[in-house]
Each structure stands twice: as C-alpha cells, then as structure tokens.
Write a structure and sequence with these properties.
Low-confidence stretches: none
Number of domains: 1
Shape: globular
Radius of gyration: 18 Å
Number of helices: 10
CATH topology: Spore Coat Polysaccharide Biosynthesis Protein SpsA, Chain A
CATH class: Alpha Beta
Largest sheet: 6 strands, mixed
Number of strands: 9
Length: 259
Amino acid sequence: MICKKRGFIRALWGIHEHEGRRFYKRRTKLDNDISFFKKNPFSHDFKVYVFGEDNAKACEDHGFDTVLLDKRPIVWDMDTEQFRHKLEVFDKAMEDFDEIVFLDWDTLPVEKIPENFWDVLNEKEEIQMTLNQYRRRKAMWRKGDTRKLCCASFVYCRNKIHTEGFIDTWEKMGRPWSEEIAMAKYTDSLKGGWKGKDHYWDNYEPYWFALPKVYWAHDKQKILNEKHSVFRHFDKRQVAKILNMKNVKEENWKTWGLS
C-alpha cells in the first residue's frame, strides 16, 4: 500500500502599506484572520506558502511551517491580478504533496478533523471546491447558472495537472482578477461544459466544507443533511465578534459559520 503525502496548506502575500488602495488592505485583514485562527482549538498541521521575506518571518514568529516562494511580497499586480498568487501556491504545494486541501485563513474547523477525512475526499473527483452563489453574473461563458462559481476558500486537489490547468485557463482568459473565474471555467471544461448544480454536487462538492447560507448554491436541506461541515468560512464580522469574546468554549464553534 502506497502511503500518500497529504497536507493542509495556507498562503500569505502582500504588504501593509496600502495607502487606501482597496485590494492592498487584504494583507492587514489577514493579521486579524491569523489571530482568529490561533484562537481556534481544533489545531491541525499545515504548511504556509509565502511571498515576501517579512511575511515569511511573521509566519515563522507564529511558529508556522513556512515555505518562502519569492522574496518579493507582491509578484502579480494587487489591483488586477492579486489572486494569481493563490494559484501559484496551489501549484507549488502539489510539488510537495500528493493531496492538498488549501484553506483561507478565515476557513477553520469547528470540530476535530475525522480520521476518514482524506478517504472521503477520495470518493469524488480529483479537484473539489464548494459551489458559491454570487449576486452578480460571473460565469459568462455559460448559457445559464452564470452566478454560480466554485469557492476558493477550501480547495482539494490530488493531481498537479489541475493546478497547472487553473493557471493555463487564467492566462487564456486574459488574467482575470478573480482566481475563481478561471477555476470554474477549467472545472467546467473537464466534462465538456457546465452540467448543472446536481452534477457538480455529485462530482466536485466537498463533503467537509460549507459556506454561510447567504452563499448557498444548493438546496438548504441538501447542505444541512448531506454534508458534514467540519470546516466553515467566517466573514469579517464573525471574526471580529469572536476575537472580542473572552471565554470561547469548544462546543460554541459548531454553532457558528453557517448563518
């Protein structure tokens, strides 16, 4: 039996000196998210892939297993191509692991990670991302469901061909700002085009992650009854609220992240 190398990964890039520029503020937001992450009681090993020597030092000071990808904190333009950094992290991580789950800093477990976590992910396709319902149309290459995109807060992959495919699609699309647009178009292409949300659920929807209900692209009962949302995404208001709480019990976490 071959023992696969599996790992959780996170990413950090950018600078604090944003001078009011909207997309540069993400780096400052991440400081809050990291503080929030450190408050979570369900610790798990992970590796963080970093752009920028100062960012790498900050991660090392936190005690994180850190990989410096580039001495520069910004490689792709923050205003127009910011999330290309994330696609690079996916691709580099697949050189270190056979299987990865990428997690945004505001995506955290709300309980202990089950022993069959990776085995369950292996029951579906080689890439899995939760389907996200946006307010605006984004998937303009489709005839319908143009507001539905895969969410890049929790990304599972077990074949580097897909992380390379994300980057290739991003280039061919003209380098869109959102990484999710390129990821969604690439995922559609694997089956000859978009096949509908039920097909997506059966093949690409990860069992272990759920978004807050405002973003749900699937039926409510399906999400509540057919998922085990060990990992959840917390918006900045939830993060701020929990950071200000003094006594947070383990059982409290399971009540958060879906509303």
